[in-house]
Amino acid sequence: MIEHLIPILAGTLGAATPLIYAGLGELVAERSGVINLGVEGMMLIGAVAGFAAAVETGGGAGAGFLAGAAAGTFAALCFAVLTMSLAANQSAAGLALTIFGIGLSAFIGQHYVSHSLPGLKPVALPLLSSIPLLGPVFFTQDMGVYLSFVFFGIVWWVLAKTKLGLMLRAVGESPESAHALGFPVFAIRYGAVLFGGAMAGIAGAYLSTVYTPMWVQNMSAGRGWIAVALVVFATWRPGRLLLGAWLFGGVTILQFHAQALGVRVPSQLLSALPYIATIVVLVLISRDRKLLQLNLPASLGKSFVPGR
């Protein structure tokens, strides 16, 4: 039993890693009051940029992560200019960004279809990797997985323990009041959105350079939408988002192990399981309005224009 359980749990962390990156970025953006539905597009832009950089420079996943973060940040900047400087509708701009990202990544990626990368090898942390069950699962992973833990700790600490986190939450609750108190509302929202774009770009780069180290058109396969749903599932709390990402990662990885475990289920149904789980979870959460409203930023999706 254990010999089957360990690869499933270890694979769950890898499958959850892009969701953690993208989900943390979207959570920060939404805590500032901005909802960006372009996560899927930013992930694809980051994926193709990261893969191209890794192939052209020979710098591997490290170069891919940097290029993915830069590409995701630039895409988020375009979204920020439209929604904050020009006060465009956030939902419409996010959907447009996703459509643009799908098309742009397909156009650029056609030149890299035949290429592949070595990816990242798992790194066993001394002493910790020898802990029964937990060691092979949590402490024998690639550096991309470990980096996601670092980002989770930073986001949690900033939101819960710092003045910047307090200002971010204040802007998300009432930008008018925050502006009256002298908080730089636009700067905070711009920073949150750009951080979200960088994280989505890293999520995409992880997919193309580590998790599936080759270019496949539309390779995010809806993970950006799942990341947006995860933020709601987590009621805008980083700890719950991490657990939710592991849950969806587990559902994703089970489809690869189900047949080996003797589960006779059509492969098409297994492939649809993560998306079915997303719908079920959102339906269940939407029924509990008190839970949904618990940490919902009051100004989420609302443009802020000083003087209005």
From TrEMBL:
One of its GO terms (molecular function) is transmembrane transporter activity. It comes from the Bacteria. InterPro entries: ABC_transp_permease. GO terms for cellular component: plasma membrane. CDD domains: TM_PBP1_transp_TpRbsC_like (cd06580). The chain crosses the membrane at residues 6-25, 37-55, 61-82, 94-113, 133-159, 180-208, 214-234, 241-261, 267-285. It comes from Niveibacterium umoris. Keywords: Cell membrane, Membrane, Sugar transport, Transmembrane, Transmembrane helix, Transport. It is a multi-pass membrane protein. The keyword Ribonucleoprotein does not apply. It is found in: Cell membrane. This is Simple sugar transport system permease protein. Signal peptide: none annotated.
